[in-house]
Structures are given as C-alpha cells and as structure tokens.
UniProtKB/TrEMBL annotation:
Protein name listed in UniProt: Major facilitator superfamily (MFS) profile domain-containing protein
Native source species: Lactuca saligna (Willowleaf lettuce)
Subcellular location: Membrane
Gene Ontology process terms (BP): phosphate ion transport
Bias (Basic and acidic residues): 564-576
GO molecular function, one term: phosphate transmembrane transporter activity
C-alpha cells in the first residue's frame, strides 16, 4: 500500500512538473510575442511615415549632397581617358618616329584600369562597413579619400616616365577605393530617405549626376586645352615633332585630374550634417526613438518620440551566407550582379576608348596632323558632344519614367536597344567608315549610350538598394556594384587589345593584332543580349516599400506562425 502510494505521488509530481514547464514556456512565448509585435509596430510608425511622406526640400538636398559624390566619381573615372594620349606624347616619345609617342600596352592598361581595381575593392569594403558602422559614419571617409587622392594624382613625383606612371597609378587606385564606397552608401542612403512613390526617381537622380560629371570632365578639358593652345601655340607633329609638344603641356593633364577634388570638397560639410537614416537606426541599431527624432527634424514629419531602445534580437536576423538568405534573395543577388557585370563590360569599353573609335572612323584627325594640346581639345570635344547629346538625356529620361514604367521594363528595353544598335554598327561596319556615312555612325553610337543610360546603367544602380534587408542592404549593393566593376575591368583591359586591327601593320605601337573594331562591337552586342536574359532574375520594386521588397516583416510572421503552431500542438497534448 505504501509502495503504491509512493509511486502515485511520484507520477503526480512529474505530471505537475511537465504541465507547469509547458504552461510556463507558453506564457513566456506569449509574453515575448506581444513584446515583439509592439517593437515591430514601433518601427513601422517611423517607416510608414517615411513611405507616405510628401516630397520635401530635404529630399532634393539629399539628392544634391549624394549626387555631388557621383558627379566627382564620374569626373575622376572618365577624365583619365582624355589625357592618356597626351601622357604618351610627353613621356614616351621616340625621336624620329613618324607617329607621336603613345603609352605602352601594359602602362596604358594600368593607367586606365587601376582606378577600377580600387573601386571594386572599395565597393566591397565600404558596403560591408556601411552595414556595420552605419551609413553616416562611413560617408565622410569616402569623400575625404577622394579629395586627397584626386589632388595627389596631379602631383605625381619626378619627371621620369616610370616614376610618374607608378605614382599616378598608386594614387588613382586609392582614388578608386574612395569612389567605390560612394556607390553602396549613396544608393542606400537615398533609398532609405525616400518615400515609396518617388523612390526610384530620387535614387536615379543621384546616379544621373554621373552624366553631368562626364560632361563637366569634357568641358573642363576643352577649356584648359583651349587656353593652353592659345597661350602656347605649337606646330603639328608632322611639321615639327619636338616643338609639337610644348613643355607647358605637362600642366594640362595635371590640372584636369586635380579639378575633380573641388566638387567633392564643397559637399563634405553637408555630408557630415546629414543624420543617420531612420531605417538603419530603427531596424539595425534598434533605436526607434532616435529614428523618429531624426526624421522629425529633417523631413518635417510629425512623429512621436517612441519608446525605449529596442535591444531584443529580431527573429528575422539571418546573415548573408545563410540558407535563408540564399532561399529568399539568392536569385535576386545573382540577377543584380550578372546584369551589372554584363552592362559594364559594354558600357566602360565604349566610354574609356571612344576616342579610338572616333579616330577609326575619322571623326578625330590622325594624331600626327595635330600638336599635343590640340589633340586633347579634339578628344574632349568629342566626349562632350556625346555626353551632351546622349549620355545626360538618357539618365534624366530614367529619372522621369522609372516610377511610371518600372525598373524591369526600362532595364529590359535598354539592353534590347543596346543589342540592336551594337549589331547595327558592327555588321555593316565598313559602310559606317566611309566618309559620307561617318556622322551616321556617331548618331548610332550615341543612341547606344542613350539606351544604356535610359536603361540598365541606371536601373542596375537603383534596384540593389531596394530589394535587400536593411542590415545587408549596403553590403549587397556593394557586391552588385563590385561585380559591375569587374566587368568594367574586363572592358577597360580587354578592349585595348581586342579593338586592334587584324593587320599587323595597322596596330597601335606595342600591341599585338586583335579582332578589330567590327568584331569587338559584335562581342559587345552578344554581351548586351545576355544582359537582357539575366534581367528576368531581377524583381520589380516599383511602388513597394523597402520592407515589402526585402520581406523583413514576412520573416517575422513566418517565425511567429511556426512558433504558434508548435505551442498549439503542445497545449493540445497537455491534460487539463
């Protein structure tokens, strides 16, 4: 009897303990669930206010502050193509040659491509750092690095060719490193400030400042070269090879490169005055109160100071290399990286070496018929005209239509027309090289630039800033942009060799025979066609909030639903 009674007591105690623990776990879960829902709602007050806020003066201020960084980026990246021929005349002239001096292939590749290597590294590093430290803390670093290295690029030491090129490449690498940081940070900051109705136009407007940077680069080079040409007249190379390059020409390329520091320096103060974005403060730093206070000041939105700092960890906190990220965003990241990679192969190979294409069709006279400074003027004038007629309008067409047509359609259309115009230039290439058809070639060439900018060159920048979670947004944009710069490196280095004539007697000095301009354009047409296909991996983000696109709230709901299901099952199995 006593033994039976003891066993009964033990069973009762175990049953009570199991019931108590299960009930206690359920109560803890319900308490956590309630607290988490409150936190989510607190965050959403700030984020919803941003999504529905009217367009205000601060939006335009942010566009200018972020956009001036991109203005400087474009100026610094593309101005080097205006002075490479001059560098060859100054530092690599061989007395008695029938043609002016030119940079050796390895030096030309390094000078043109080293900034892209730095940009790629900067995009990855500063993209990651922007998610770890916050957008604002990193934003000033990139700009100051650009200012210092832009000035240093024009102060390359010594007058020996090797020393000048080595120091020029060194400072342009670090200039590119700073430029690289501007890509993910500017895009992310603008996307997190904007309302969802006009977000695409705001981000595209920041990127469109790149067009003005390219245009200004050509105009500055035109003005400086025209002033020096007027002040220091010189004969053509074929008339007097030594006197065709005046000693003052060494100042021309230095002034052009150093000018890029001015717009960056002018915007440094205003960058430091910008508050951290509300989405980073609320979703990553978990401080909804500070986010509300910051946005109340700058956007003139009436937001209540929200409760205490959010310290609890959100269930939706998977990392970049997790299975959950791969499942949700893996194809999206593949789409943004491949499309940007393919676009930049075509875009940068054209942009950096358009002077060679213009020479090939006779739009720029043969080098030996000009003096050194006159050649800079002719090359910069050609780039200015292309920028004015096609590059700048293309960017602003995107700004005007991106929130009406949508990102996907604009990108698909851009790749399609780039493919069409590339093949239209390449297949009847001999026809376009005839003197009476050269203007037609330039028009077709300009149209490829127009649809690059009213197309994937803008949308590949916009979309990665909209579709990834806040805690990974800057990192993923940096990865996408770095993929693009890998394509730019291929275009910058590869096109130097590929565009060379198949006839050994017609290649540039030091270069082996290539596949020719015609076949190079065919290759670029195929690249654009592949970009059109990979566009189908990229989702449409038009009119949707950042949280809806990144599915940050959805992750919370899935986690809660799963926990609720488990608790319900356990509760049902418990005796009453």
């Amino acid at each position: 009897m006593n033994a039976t009674s003891s066993r009964t007591r033990i069973v009762a105690v175990k049953h009570f303990h199991t019931t108590f623990v299960a009930r206690g776990t359920s109560l803890w879960y319900n308490s956590f669930h309630c607290r988490f829902k409150v936190m989510a709602n607190e965050n959403l007050k700030v984020l919803n206010a941003l999504d529905v806020a009217k367009t205000q003066w601060y939006h335009f201020t942010a566009i200018v502050i972020a956009g001036m960084g991109f203005f400087t980026d474009a100026y610094d990246l593309f101005c080097i193509s205006l002075v490479t021929k001059l560098l060859g005349r100054i530092y690599y002239h061989n007395v008695g040659d029938k043609n002016p001096g030119s940079l050796p292939p390895n030096v030309s590749a390094a000078v043109n491509g080293v900034a892209f290597c730095g940009t790629l590294a900067g995009q990855l590093f500063f993209g990651w750092l922007g998610d770890k430290m916050g957008r604002k803390k990193v934003y000033g670093m990139t700009l100051m690095l650009m200012v210092i290295c832009s000035i240093a690029s024009g102060l390359s030491f010594s007058d020996e060719p090797t020393a000048v090129m080595a120091t020029l490449c060194f400072f342009r690498f670090w200039l590119g490193f700073g430029i690289g940081g501007d890509y993910p940070l500017s895009a992310t900051i603008m996307s997190e400030y904007a309302n969802k109705k006009t977000r695409g136009a705001f981000i595209a407007a920041v990127f469109a400042m790149q067009g003005f940077g390219i245009l200004t680069g050509g105009m500055v080079a035109c003005i400086i070269s025209a002033a020096f040409k007027s002040s220091f007249p010189a004969p053509a190379y074929e008339d007097d090879e030594l006197r065709s390059t005046v000693s003052q020409a060494d100042y021309v390329w230095r002034i052009i490169l150093m000018f890029g520091s001015i717009p960056a320096l002018m915007t440094y103060y205003w960058r430091m005055k910008m508050p951290e974005t509300a989405r980073y403060t609320a979703l990553v730093a978990k401080n909804a109160k500070q986010a509300a206070a910051d946005m109340s000041k700058v956007l003139q939105v009436d937001l209540e100071a929200e409760p205490e700092k959010l310290q609890e960890k959100s269930p939706n906190s998977f990392g970049l290399f997790s299975k959950q990220f791969a499942k949700r965003h893996g194809l999206h990241l593949l789409g943004t990286t491949t499309t940007w990679f393919l676009l930049d192969i075509a875009f940068y190979s054209q942009n950096l070496f358009q002077k060679d294409i213009f020479t090939a069709i006779g739009w720029i006279p043969a080098a030996k018929t000009m003096n050194a400074i006159e050649e800079v003027f002719k090359i910069s004038r050609a780039q200015t005209l292309i920028a004015l007629c096609s590059t700048v309008p293309g960017y602003w067409f995107t700004v005007a239509f991106i929130d009406r047509i949508g990102r996907f359609k604009i990108q698909l259309m851009g790749f399609f027309f780039m493919t069409v115009f590339m093949f239209a230039l390449a297949i009847p290439y001999h026809h376009w090289t005839q003197k009476e058809n050269r203007i037609g070639f330039v028009v077709m060439y300009a149209l490829t630039f127009f649809f690059a900018n009213f197309g994937p060159n803008a949308t590949t920048f916009v979309v990665p800033a909209e579709i990834f979670p806040a805690r990974l947004r800057s990192t993923c944009h940096g990865i996408s942009a770095a993929s693009g710069k890998a394509g730019a490196i291929i275009g910058a280095f590869g096109f130097l060799y590929a565009a060379q004539s198949q006839d050994k007697t017609k290649t540039d000095k030091g270069y082996p025979p290539g596949i020719g301009v015609k076949n190079s354009l065919i290759v670029l047409g195929v690249v654009n066609c592949l970009g059109m296909l990979f566009t189908f991996l990229v989702p449409e983000s038009n009119g949707k909030s950042l949280e809806e696109m990144s599915r940050e709230n959805e992750g919370e709901d899935e986690e809660v639903t799963e926990m609720e299901s488990q608790r319900t099952h356990e509760n049902r199995s418990l005796p009453i």
